[in-house]
Amino acid sequence: MTGRDFGRTLRLEGRAVDVGRGAASDLVIEQPGVASRHARVEPGPRGWVLVDRSDGCGLRVNDAEVRQHELQSGDRIRIGEALLLFSNQRDDLRTWLTTATSVEEHDASMSSGFLRQQWRDLKAYMRPGDALWRFSSPPESWRRLGGRAGLCVVRAGAVIYTLVTEMN
Fold first, then answer.
1. Which residue range forms the structural domain that includes residue 133?
2. pLDDT classification of 143: cutoffs 50, 70, 90
3. Burial (0-12, 13-18, 19+ Cβ within 10 Å), 30
4. How far from 152 is each of 21, 96, 119, 161, 168, CA to CA, in Å?
5. Which helix (DSSP H) or strand (DSSP E) does residue 2 occupy?
6. Among 55, 50, 58, residue whose Cα is nearest residue 85
7. Is there a contact between 36 and 20 (Cβ–Cβ < 8 Å)?
8. Are residues 58 and 101 in the same domain?
9. What residues does 131 pair with on adjacent strands?
10. What pLDDT does 8 receive?
11. What span, in angstroms and rounded, lies between the C-alpha atoms of 36 and 55?
12. Judging by beta carbons within 10 Å of its beta carbon (0-12, 13-18, 19+), is residue 7 exposed, middle or buried?
């Protein structure tokens, strides 16, 4: 969030979340242009859905006015003068895993000295059957935030360790 609440996060835990200026809201935003019951984020069939409940105050996602929007990781939500960033870690991880490359296959191309050293350290930690993945191009949603790169260890199909570094 921007303004007074910069950096504040709210975890969505499988239930609808009301957003607005009113005290009954789950996420209270006390900024100009925010209605007492401005929006609702609710579970949908393929993820989270943002619904405008403001009766004319307006709701924007990625600079486009919307009444309802299926949220994607990296969406920028404007409610009044407040700006929120939606991040779905599951989507980001899925994107990582489909764009990642195996370190063993591309060891020589690892450009970051920091990541190269971390890879050497992680090899001692890994067990037979573990996979080590490198993220050489960040998900689109992270490019807006400056980008990140990293390494993760996958054991039995689950990510058990992730190292992320900022890209400048």
1. 90-166
2. very low
3. middle
4. 40, 10, 9, 5, 20
5. none
6. 50
7. yes
8. no
9. 154
10. 67
11. 10
12. exposed
Q: What is the pLDDT of residues 19-76, one digit of tens each?
A: 999 999 988 888 888 999 999 999 988 888 999 999 888 899 999 999 999 998 778 8
Q: Among 66, 87, 108, give the residue marking a domain's end.
A: 87
pLDDT at 69: 96
| The model's pTM | 0.56
* Cα separation, 127 vs 113, whole angstroms: 24
Query: In angstroms, rounded to a whole number, what is the distance separating the alpha carbons of residues 43 and 35?
Result: 22
87-128 tens-digit pLDDT: 776 555 555 444 444 445 444 444 556 666 766 677 777 778
47/112 same-domain check: no
Q: Is 30 helix (H, G, I), strand (E, B) or coil?
A: coil
Relative to beta strand 76-79, strand 60-61 is antiparallel
Query: Which of 73, 54, 77, 49 minimizes the C-alpha distance to 64?
Result: 77
Note whether 26 and 12 are within 8 A (CB): no
